Amino acid sequence: MKRSWWKVTLALLCILILLIGMSLLWSTLNIRNQVRQTVEQTNAHALKLWAGNVQNQLDALYEHLYDLLVSLYNSTELRTGTPIMDVSTKQKIIEMMNDKLMVSTDADAFFVLDTENDFYLFSASSTLSNQDIFRLKTHCRTAALDAPLSLREQSWKVLEVGDISYFYKNIQLGKYIAGVACRLSRFSPEKTVAILGQDPTFFLALPDQNLTWLGEPDWTGNPGRCTVRQHIYNLGGEIVLSAVPALTEQSIAQPVLLLLITALCLALVVLLLLLLRRLVAAPTRTLMEANEILAAGNIRYRLDEDKARSKEFAALFDSFNNMAQQIGNLKIEAYDLRLREQSNRLTMLRAQIRPHSFLNAVTTISNMTYTCRPEEIRAYIQVFAKYIRYMLNVSDPWITVEAEVGHIRNYLKMQEVRFPGAIRFTAEYDAAAGECKIPFLLLYTLVENSIKHAMSLYETLDITVRCVREDREDFHGFCLTEEDSGQGFPEDVAEKLRSGDEPFVKEHLGLSNVRYTLNLTYHRDDLLRLSNRPQGGARVELWIPDKEENHETSDL
């Protein structure tokens, strides 16, 4: 009986140990998967935010390059067969490039290449050595001639010059090619991204090449590493992050060793199970809940490191808190960058105010001194002062429809003095539509374009502006319509403006700028629609999405 009792006891003990061992093994594997998932999620959040910051920086560089091309268009002839630019124009272009290098914090070089006359202008940052400048100058010229890009091509290239890698972009318009280059080291991820894990490796994967930024890329699929990827649209590739979790394979395997201890002492096994639940499962659950809170948008949430209950989880909690802090800082930086981008767009639009607008006003005042009373001259000057104040003193790149219409009416008062009875303006919108926010000078540009191309001294020009609410399955926002009673768009010009194949239609530069502003603001190319009315005249529609549908203008 004793032997049977001992056999039964031993069998029960073995079964109990086996069950405890299986429970420990299952807990270990579950903890490993949870930690790995946590590492991948947190790294993915950090990588996504950093990649978005890279996209914003590259978009800002593209804006500077676009502005340089606009200045080149306004200063020179782009058609083939035209003579090479003179010395003064060359100096002006060089000064433009130098100004862009001073304004942009990321650009290393700008260049302009005349493909017809074999003429090349190059300006580089003073942070580069003379040898690096010479190499970059040569490679930029070769790359531009080998693969000139159109204005609609958004992808950047990676240019290897010696031991330095550059982001590179060029645009061809007519016989000219303009381009910009910036060092990849300016976008170093280790300075801006907190990594929940050990031994991080960043590298850029492009369709035709792989570029390693830190360490060597790990394509082996090592199960001990967590790998996440984030696509960057304006690079045509993706950023890859591979890292070993902070809770290493060795530390994860430690609970498995307890199985050997349980074979010696069952009481210790039970005690260790209770300790594992307290020291591992609870902190892991806390870490996962914190990650869900962070993913929901609460970037101010922090973990209490005193509740980690182990050095490993204390290190994890500290990594999580550092990562959350870095995410908050990156969001602030991204928000500041968007503000700077909006300010740059506003500055570019203001720069397009032609000097003749002011000269015409001064000429009108001069002519009025011969035929008008002083009260009329003073009234005109007051209207002109209000016009200038609106153009120069608006600090917000967004303006309401009602405010923009008020500015248009003031502008038409100035035109009424020059062309009495030539223009009849009507604005139709309700209170909600009047409060719709649109980019600064967007509606004014349409009205000014109609006056420029459709006004006649023999017939009164009717201009009508409407703003109505549109709620559809694929669109929620407002539709702005501007109509005139002129001759309408010539079919060839209208086709160029609709397709966007011709970025600068010289006769309708204002509409080209409107299209560019809409594309840059809302990242959509279907918001500008042109047509001719059946009864005669042009019709322009602007579709303004709601603010919450536009990620570029959404709150942080």
Describe this structure in words.
This protein has helices at 2-75, 87-103, 130-146, 249-264, 266-295, 311-351, 355-371, 374-393, 401-418, 431-434, 442-454, 491-499, 509-522, and strands at 109-114, 119-124, 157-161, 164-173, 176-183, 198-206, 209-212, 226-232, 237-244, 398-400, 423-429, 437-439, 461-471, 476-484, 528-532, 538-545. With 556 residues, it is α+β, with helices and mostly antiparallel strands. Among the domains are: 76-186, Beta-Lactamase; 394-549, Heat Shock Protein 90. A 5-stranded antiparallel β-sheet has the order 2-1-5-4-3. A 5-stranded mixed β-sheet has the order 11-13-14-16-15. It has a 4-stranded antiparallel β-sheet with strand order 7-6-9-8, with helices on one face. Helix 1 (2-75) runs antiparallel to helix 2, helix 4 runs antiparallel to helix 5 (266-295) and helix 7 (355-371) runs antiparallel to helix 8 (374-393). The N and C termini lie far apart (76 Å). Residues 1-6 and 551-556 have low confidence and may be disordered.
Spell out the blueprint of helices and strands.
Elements: H1 2-75, H2 87-103, E1 109-114, E2 119-124, H3 130-146, E3 157-161, E4 164-173, E5 176-183, E6 198-206, E7 209-212, E8 226-232, E9 237-244, H4 249-264, H5 266-295, H6 311-351, H7 355-371, H8 374-393, E10 398-400, H9 401-418, E11 423-429, H10 431-434, E12 437-439, H11 442-454, E13 461-471, E14 476-484, H12 491-499, H13 509-522, E15 528-532, E16 538-545
Parallel strand pairs: 11-13
Antiparallel strand pairs: 1-2, 1-5, 3-4, 4-5, 6-7, 6-9, 8-9, 10-12, 13-14, 14-16, 15-16
